[in-house]
Each structure stands twice: as C-alpha cells, then as structure tokens.
Amino acid sequence: MRAAFLIFAAALVAAPASAAVIVSVEGAGVAAPTLSGYTFVRDTLNGNINGGANLAFGNSGITGTTSSGWITSADANVYGGVGGTGKYGSVSGTATINLSTSVNYFGLWGSALDGNNAVALYNNDTLLGTWALQSVLQGSPTFSNAYFGNPFGGGNTGEAYAFFNFKSDTAFNRVQLIQNGGGGFEFDDLTVGQSIVGAAPDPATWMTMLTGFGLIGWAMRRRRAGGLAGTTAAAH
After folding, report:
1. CB neighbours (10 Å) of residue 214?
2. Sequence spans of domains, the chain
3. What is the number of other CB atoms lying within 10 angstroms of the CB of residue 1?
4. pLDDT of residue 222
5. Which pTM value belongs to this model?
6. What is the DSSP letter of 50?
7. Contact at 8 Å (CB) between 93 and 184?
8. Does pLDDT of 216 surpass 60?
9. Can you list the alpha helix ranges (DSSP code H) found in 73-180?
10. Could you report how far apart the first and last alpha carbons of the chain are, in Å?
C-alpha cells in the first residue's frame, strides 16, 4: 500500500496542466505587439495574391501554408491595411494556415471588426481555443471609443480596429482565421513568436507539484515512523 501511495504521488508531480492561452489587446491605434519576453516575426501580406496564401514570417525561416479556405488580398483602404499602405487580407469563411515551425505566440491586426470574426489555435489536431475578436476587445480593460474608426486614414467609425496577442503555454502549429456568417474578416500583419526566457511552470503546475511533493514527504515520514516503532517494539 505504501509503495502504491508513493507511485500515486509521483504521478501527480508528472501530470501536465491543461494548456492555457492568454489573449490581450494592444492600445488603441497600436498595430504591433509590445509584449516583452518574445521574438516576433511577421508577414505584412503585401506580397500575397488572392487564393491559398504562402506566408513567410520575416527572415526567420518560418512559413505558413493555407491548407483550406481562401484569403483575399486587397489594397489598403478604410477597411484594412496597417499604416494605410500596402495590402491586407480577408476571409469570408475559414482559412486554415499550417505553420512550418511550432510557436507559442500569434498576433494580428484586426480591422473593421464585427461579431463574426474569430481566431482558433491548434497543436496538430488538438484545439487550444477559439476566440471571437469583438468579444475579446469589448472585455479588454483598455476598451473605449478610441478603438472605433480607421486609425490611419479615418472613416468607418462604426467598427473597431485593434491588434490582438495570443500567448500560449503550449506550442501550436495551426491557425484558423474564421468568418462566421455574412460579411468578411479583415486582417493584416500576421505575427508569430517564440518566448526568449525560460518559462516558469504555470500556477496549476506548481500546485500539482507542491501537492505531489507533500504527499511523498508525508508517506516517507510515515514509513520512517513505522520503522522506528517496529524497532522499539523489538527492543522490548
């Protein structure tokens, strides 16, 4: 029984915590990530054509291939285009982008947002989560009227524009850009990243480890106490 208890405690220490993704929104008008502790590379979408996009994230060697869906490329206008120049992308359904390298950060500039725009992250076929961007923005502590209207050229004051960060404690290699229902999902500057500092265990993992260590220590103390009692009894 004592050995079985020790095995159970050790298993608690080894058990992984569930994946956690932290989503945040940059300040109004900020069109790039300002998070610390990551290296970021992006595809500005300026070289893409309509159809299945082949993305190249800077000079990192990380690429993205659209395995399903259709990305439409358009010149910057009131509905999209970081800085008011270049091109931006949009989808009217779901576009799946497979990354050549697993990452733990994804970000994008979402423009002319509506309630049907969403992002999903996968590690292979395991879904880490799906987020409706308008709901994320409205729930952000920085949310205000300053997000409404194109920040680069003005206009379209009835819709919001923002840059979204997705930080994951589990690496992922697939991104879905989703338009649920009518309309389109406009986006630009797709960004991926890797953490550059040693990641500390998340709180759930720490709690599991501490519980496991405590159980192991308790079991070992009981075993020592039992051994001492047996020795004392034998001496008498």
Report:
1. 12
2. 2-11+202-235, 20-195
3. 6
4. 52
5. 0.77
6. S
7. no
8. no
9. 133-138
10. 27
